[in-house]
Write a structure and sequence with these properties.
This protein is an alpha/beta fold. It is built from 11 helices and 9 strands. The structure holds N-carbamoyl-L-aspartate. Pathway: Pyrimidine metabolism; UMP biosynthesis via de novo pathway; (S)-dihydroorotate from bicarbonate: step 2/3.
Length: 318
């Protein structure tokens, strides 16, 4: 494995190996000195063409905890806003000696283009491309589920039989797609719940059940994990539902639904949250909520991925 572009490409063994390695990385972060020398002398470039706070900071923290040098490149304020192409940007980074490139781009497939090009000879990590994939988010979500379910006995385990319901803006969500492929590979059962207007065309050929009524789905499935997605207003060029109030009433996780869900189900959200729209403040801050664990686990997962791609142990994954 030279790049991490999608979760679709990962085998079960590879995925479990990344989760296990992330356990080791998490252990490092409980030490007083949270740093490993593994990537000393390597350079990781964070190439962000789209807004992001937590993902960019998470990759930066991960690279630094592995002792890599980090260059942050945000498209705003760079030559990209002067019309520089991905190719020119990549060649500039290559000339600076980048060993790894973490790329977020609004165009689905941009990381793949970079990885397959001969513009740069670096490991490429997809940090979210358009509505396509966001593999490290899915890995950190799986890691969070595994830890809540198995605690200290997580190592080596997958997510067989775990019932996951993913609710909301599936149409625009790379998080939903990456999660679906990875969760299926790890043996979980996945259901999407959304208004019909926010379900992607072609979902019928995906290994997922689709429901439109949230209360009915929750009562029938009694999920172990309920994952709420952000309404991605920035990707919407039309009215996909009548009003925010209507959306919150039909598809939001409010306090009443949280009670009905019971204390043993996990509530997840990749962030950033629209509190009061897809999730109530009460649900977001409840003991069932893993929102902050997801953020913390993100650093461990990204350390594991960067380590596997850049430490010279690439063959270990393949
Ligand atoms: C997600 C993303 O950017 O795809 N957020 C994230 O990585 N922190 C989900 C989202 O934006 O809704």
């Amino acid at each position: 494995m030279r790049h991490l572009l999608s979760t679709k490409d990962l085998t079960r063994d590879e995925a479990v190996r990344i989760l296990d390695l992330a356990e080791d990385m998490a252990a490092v972060q409980t030490r007083e000195v949270k740093k490993l020398p593994a990537l000393r002398g390597r350079t990781v470039v964070n190439l962000f063409f789209e807004d992001s706070t937590r993902t960019r900071i998470s990759f930066e923290a991960a690279a630094k905890r592995l002792s890599a040098d980090v260059i942050n490149f945000a498209a705003k304020g760079s030559s990209v806003s002067k019309g520089e192409s991905l190719k020119d940007t990549a060649q500039t980074l290559a000339a600076m000696g980048a060993d790894g490139v973490v790329i977020r781009h609004s165009a689905s497939g941009a990381p793949q283009v970079l990885a397959q090009s001969d513009w740069i000879d670096a490991g490429v990590v997809n940090a979210g491309d358009g509505t396509h994939e966001h593999p490290t988010q899915a890995l950190l979500d799986a890691f969070t589920m595994r830890r809540r379910l198995h605690g200290a006995a997580s190592r080596g385990k997958a997510l067989d039989g775990v019932k996951v319901v993913i609710v909301g803006d599936i149409l625009h969500s790379r998080v939903a797609r990456s999660n679906l492929w990875l969760l299926r590979t790890l043996g979980a059962e996945v259901t999407f719940v959304a208004p019909a207007t926010l379900v992607p065309v072609g979902v019928g050929s995906w290994p997922v059940e689709v429901e439109f009524d949230l209360d009915a789905a929750l009562a029938r499935i009694r999920p172990d994990v309920l994952m709420m997605l952000r309404i991605q207003s920035e990707r919407m060029n039309a009215a996909f539902f009548p009003s925010a109030r209507e959306y919150a009433r039909e598809w939001g996780l409010d306090d009443e639904r949280l009670v009905a869900l019971g204390p043993d189900s996990m509530v997840m959200h990749p962030g950033p949250m629209n509190r009061g729209l897809e999730i109530s403040a009460g649900a977001a801050d409840s003991p069932q909520s893993t929102v902050l664990e997801q953020v913390a686990n993100g650093v461990s997962i990204r350390m594991a991925v960067l380590y596997l791609l850049l430490s010279g142990e690439r063959e270990a994954l393949s």
